[in-house]
Amino acid sequence: MDLLGLLNWKANPAAVPMHLKNLTKVDGEEIVKFLQDTLDALFSILMQNSDSGTYDQPVFDALVSVQL
Fold first, then answer.
1. Tens place of pLDDT per residue across the chain (68 aa)
2. Cβ-contact 67, 29 below 8 angstroms
3. SS3 annotation, 1-62
4. How far apart (Å, rounded) are the C-alpha atoms in residues 52 and 46?
5. d(Cα 10, Cα 15) in Å, to the nearest integer?
6. Residue ranges per domain, the chain?
7. Which residues, other chains included, contact 23 with Cβ-Cβ below 8 Å and sequence gap of 6+?
8. How far does Cα 5 stand from its chain's mean position?
């Protein structure tokens, strides 16, 4: 459910920090199945919030801590 929440982050932007934190708990096999969509969502979050820098560190942490 955490991966789905991240992929649909625009529907509930307030939950983005929670989804980013929980992304490390998602099975690597699931992330690989949706790798392109996951990366698109992460970079979209960065681009939509580029002026504030709010999600820079959480997105980076999610990217480096996901175990495939």
1. 789 999 999 999 999 999 999 998 999 999 999 999 999 999 999 999 888 889 999 999 999 988 87
2. no
3. CHHHHHHCHHHCHHHHHHHHHHHHHCCHHHHHHCHHHHHHHHHHHHHHCCCCCCCHHHHHHH
4. 10
5. 10
6. 2-65
7. 2, 3, 6, 31, 38, 62, 66
8. 9
Retrieve residue 4's tokens: 């789905």
For residue 68 the two structure tokens come to: 């495939």
Taken as a whole, the chain contains a residue count of 68
- Of 13, 8, 58, nearest to 34 by C-alpha is 8
Instruction: With residue 63 as reference, give the H or E element that holds it.
Output: helix 56-65
Q: How far apart are the first and last CA of the chain?
A: 18
> Does this model's pTM top 0.85?
yes
- Six-digit token pair at 15? 């939950």
